[in-house]
Amino acid sequence: MLRRTFPSPEALRRLPFGLADVAVILGTLLLLALVARLGAGTLVSFQPPDVVPGIDLDPRNLPYYAGRSTLRMFVALFFSMVFTLIYGYVAANSPRAERVMVPLLDILQSVPVLGFLSVTVTGFIALFPGSLLGLEAASIFAIFTSQVWNMTFSFYQSLKTVPKDLDEAMTLYRLSRWQRFTKLEVPSATIGLVWNAMMSFGGGWFFVTASEAISVLNQAYTLPGIGSYVAAALAKQDLLPLGWALLTIAIIIILTDQLFWRPLIAWSNKFRLEQSASADAPESWVYDLLKAARIPRLLGKALTPVQESLNHLLSGLAPAPAAQIKAPNRSSDRLYNLILLMIVAALVVTGVHFILTTVGIGEVVTAFGLGLLTLLRVTALLIFATLVWTPIGVAIGFNPKLARLLQPVVQFLASFPANFIFPFATLFFIHTNISINWGSILLMALGSQWYILFNSIAGAQSIPTDLREMATDVGLKGWQRWRRLIIPGIFSAWVTGGVTASGGAWNASIVSEVVSWGQTTLIATGLGAYIAEATETGDWPRITLGIGMMSLFVVGINRVLWRRLYHLAETKYHL
Amino acid sequence: MNSVQTATDVLIAVEQVHKSFPLPDGKGEFTVLRDINVTVRSGEVVALLGRSGSGKSTLLRTMAGLISPSQGRVLSNGKPLRGANNDVAMVFQSFALLPWLTVQQNVELGLEAQGVPREERRQRALKAIDLVGLDGFESAYPKELSGGMKQRVGFARAFVLEPQVLFMDEPFSALDVLTSENLRGEIDDLWNAGTFPSKSILIVTHNIEEGVFLADRVIILGSNPGQVRGEVVIDLPRSHDRTSDRFKALVDYIYTVMTNPDVEVTSAAPVAVTPVVSVPRSPYAQALPHARSGGISGLLELIVDRPDGKDDIPRLADRLQLEVDDLLPILDAAVLLGFAEVSQGDVQLTSIGQDFATTTILRSKDLFQQQALQNVPVLSSMAQTLREKKSQSMRADFFLDLLDEYYPHEEAEKQFATAVDWGRYAELFEYDASEDRLYLPEPAIAQIRENV
After folding, report:
1. Is the ipTM of this complex over 0.85?
2. Is A383 helix (H, G, I), strand (E, B) or coil?
C-alpha cells in the first residue's frame, strides 16, 4: 500500500510522458493532417476532356505534388501487401491452386507494366465517372503491378520453406490456422517481405512518375503529382522546374527511407530465424524513438483484451486442420490438369486469332524483329554495365569502410526514378546529334545499371577474407585473380543483379525508346517504341501483340538464360 | 510385448504399422517401417534406439500423429489416432522455438491454441518455466539463450500442457557434452522424484548410454527397413547407476546387438551369432555404410595402437566423442572391407587391417582396392561397367538410376557419393563432377607409380 501512495523517485522522474512521447504524438498528428490534405485532392471533379486538373509550375507547389505521388505509393503498397498475403497463402496451401498461381505469377512478373496503362486507365475512368479517382486508381494500379509480384513470390517462398520442426511443433500444439498464420507463417516471412517491399517501392517511383502524365487512346491525361509536374516542365522546355523536381524527389526518397523503411527494417530484424543474436543489427533513430516512447506500449496494453478476443474469434473461424493431408487423388488430378491445359490452349488460340485476323502474320514478324532489336539493346546494356560497374563494385566491396559508406548511396540511386534524368539526356542527344537508337541504351541503363553495381558490391563482400588472402599468397594477379577468385565469387550475386537489371531494362524500353523535349520527339526502332506508339493511338491489336511479344521475349530469356545461370550459381559457385 | 497388459494401462499402442514412401518416377516403394508393434504404458520411460535408417524418427512422428501410417494403426488412450495426437507433447532436437516470441510466449503457445484465458495461461506458464529452472528469463528471446537454456524452454513448453506421454526426439544431441549431461540428469531427477508433468516418457535416441540411463525399457530398431528387433529391460533401480557392473553390461550388450544386425535381441544374456544365408541380390541393392575413406583409415590407425589391435566400442565412442550414428557406419565399413571384426562390443583389427593401418599411403591404397574389389560388389560392378565401355567412361546418371531402383532419391545420391569416395580412394575410377561422368583412371598414372 505504501508503495502505491508514494511512488519511487525513479518512477516520478519517468512520469508520465517523455520527450519521445511528445515527438510521437506530434508526428502522428502531422501525418494525419498531411494525409487528410492530400487525400482531399483525389476527389476533385474530373470530366475529360473539359475539366482536367492543371499543373502549376511554381516550385512552391512541389511539396504538395510530391505528397500526392507519395500517398499513391503508399496506397499501392498497402494493396500489394494485402494481395501478397492472400495470393501467397492460397498458392502455398492448396496444391491445385499452386499449379496455376505460381506459373501465372512468373508470367505476370515478366509482363511490361507500362504497356498495361492503356488498358487500366480506360477501365478505371469508366469505373469512377466524373471523379479524379479513376485516374488515381489507374496510377496506383500501375505502381501496384510493378511491385506486387516480387513481394508475392517472396512470401510464397517463405511459406514453402518454413522450417520443418517449427511446422511440426505448431501441428502438435494444435494451433488454429489463424494462430499458425500470425505466429509462424507471417513472422517467418517478414524479413524477406520487408526487403522485397522496400526494393519494389524504390522501383515504384519510376512507375508513379510515368503513370501520372500519359497519353492513352489519343487523349492526354494529367494527374497532379511530381511526374506530371516534370511532364509539364518538359512541354514548356523549362529547365529550372526540372531541377527543383529532381531535388524534391531526392528529398522524398531519403525521407521515406528514414521515416518508414529504416524503422521497419530495424523492427523486422527480430524475425530472424537464426537462433543466435546477429552481430550488427540494423539501426534506425525513428524506431529507437518509438521504442523509447511510452504511448505505443500503453496503447498496446489497453488493446490486449480486444486483440485477445479477436484472436479467439478468428481461431474459431479457422480451426486447426482436423485430419492429415490425404494422398492426392490421381484420377481427379488428371482431370484437373486436362481442364487447365484446355483453358490455356483456348486463351492462346483466342489471342493468336485476334492478332492474326486484325493485323496479320506480317505484323507478328515485324514485332518479332523489333523485339530482337530491343533485345540487342538490353544485351549491350548488360555487357557495358557489367564491364563498367563490376570492377567498381568489387573495389567497393573489398573495402568494408567504403562499402558501408556507399551502399546506401547506391540503393538511393537504384530507387531514383530514371525518367527524371531523361529530359537532360534527351537534350544532350539533340545537341550532339546522337541517334536515339543508341541513346536509348543509355536511357535504359540509367535505371537498371545500379542493380549490377549493387549486387557486385554484395558479391564481393561475401567472398571470404581467407580466400582473398590465399589468392594474394599464391600470387594471383590481374586477370588470373579475376578468373579464379572474383568472377566465381561474385557470380551468384551478379546473376541476381543481371536478372533484375534485364527485367528493368525491358520495362524501361517502353519509355526510353520514345522521348521528347518540347515539340521534338525522338523515336527509336524497337519493341518498346512500338508498344508506346500503339498505346498512344489506342491500337488494340498492336498493343496486344506488342505486350505479348515482349512478355514472350522476357519469359523466353528467363527460361533459356537466367534460370540456367541460376542453377549454375547454386550448384557450382555457391560459397 | 513380454507380458499381457490391461487395456487401461496402455497409453499408446502401435499395431502392425507399415510406412512406405513412393520412389521417384514410380519405381515402386521404399519401406521405412515394417510390421511395427510398440506400446507405451503408464508410468514408464521407453527409449527407441536405432541407427540412422531405422525409421525411429518416423515411428515417433507416426505415434505423434504427424505422419499417418500406410498400414496398421496407432491407438492413443484406446482410440484410433486421427490427426495430431492430443495426448502427447514433443521436445524437439532443434528446440523448434519461435525466435520472435519471448520465452513465456513460447511456453504459452500450446495453451493459447487450446483457448485458455490469458491470466491462467500466464500462471501455468510461469510454473512450468520455474520447473525447468528458467525463472527470471520469462521475457528473454530465444536468441539470447544458450543451447541448454533453449532446450529448457522446449521442455517447459511441453510440460505446461501436462501431456499423458512426453515425446523427446533426440533432445540432447544438439547440445555440447557437459550441457546435455546436466540437462539429462535434471530430467531424470524430476522423473524419479515422482512430480513429472507427464505419465510416461518416450525418447528417441541414438546414444546407447543415454537410453540405458533414462529408460526402463529400450526398444531396439533394425534398419532397412525399420523394424523392431526386440527390447531390453533395464532391470536397475532408478536412478540408474552408470558405474554399476550391470549398467556396463547392458551398454556392452546393446553395442554388441547394434553392431551385429543379425543377432537376435533378447532381454537376457547374449546369444551366439547365427549367420543368415544371404540371398543373391543386385550389387546396387546392398547399402554401403556412409563412411568416408579418410574416416575409415583414421579409425583403424587409432585402434591399431591399442594392445592386440583391439578396443572396446563404448570406450572408443566415449574417447572420440562420437555418437553411435557417426561411429557405427565407420565400423561397418571397416568390417565390410575386411579390415576389422566386431564381437561382444569389441572391435578387433584383422591382419589386413593392421597392415592397412601401418603401411605407406600407396600400399594402403592398393590394399583398399584389393579389399574393395573382393568385398564391395557395387564397386567391382561399377569398375566392370566402365571397363566394358569403349570410352572407358560412363555418365553418373546411369549408376544413379540403378541406385534409384532400391532407394529414395536422396539416399541413392548418398550411396553414390559414398561409392565414388571409396572408388576414388581405391583408384578404381575417377569422377569428374562438372561433367558428371565416371572414368577409368588413366594407365599413365599407374605407370608412373610403378616406376617410382
Report:
1. no
2. helix
Contact A142, A73 (CB under 8 A): no
- For residue B301, what is the domain's CATH number? 1.10.10
Give the CATH number of the domain where residue B215 resides.
Answer: 3.40.50.300
Contact A176 B113 (CB under 8 A): yes
Please report residues of B whose CB lies closer than 8 A to that of A272.
Answer: 99, 143
- A572 contacts on B by Cβ (under 8 Å): 434
Range(s) of the domain holding residue A520:
359-575
Residue A521: strand, helix, or coil: strand
HEC string for A326-357: CCCCHHHHHHHHHHHHHHHHHHHHHHHHHHHH
In terms of CA atoms, which chain B residue is nearest residue A166?
A: B96
For chain B, what is the domain count? 2
Give the pLDDT confidence of B374-393 residue by residue, as tens digits: 888 888 888 888 888 888 88
Q: For A421-454, write each residue's pLDDT tens digit.
A: 888 888 888 888 888 888 899 988 888 888 888 8
Q: Which residues of A touch B93 (CB under 8 A)?
A: 165
Rounded to an integer, what distance in angstroms lies between the CA atom of residue A556 and that of residue A553?
5
The torsion angle over the Cα atoms of residues B264, B266, B271 and B276, rounded to 10 degrees, is -10
Q: Which residue has the cell 503498397?
A: A77
pLDDT in tens, A11-37: 545 545 677 777 778 888 888 888 777
Give the Cα separation of B121 and A183 in Å (integer): 17
Q: From residue A433, give the alpha-carbon distance in Å to each of A30, A426, A428, A445, B200.
A: 49, 10, 8, 19, 87
Same domain, residue pair B297 and B436: yes
Q: Model's pTM, two decimal places? A: 0.78
Q: Is B251 found in the same domain as B310?
A: no
Residue A259 domain flag: yes
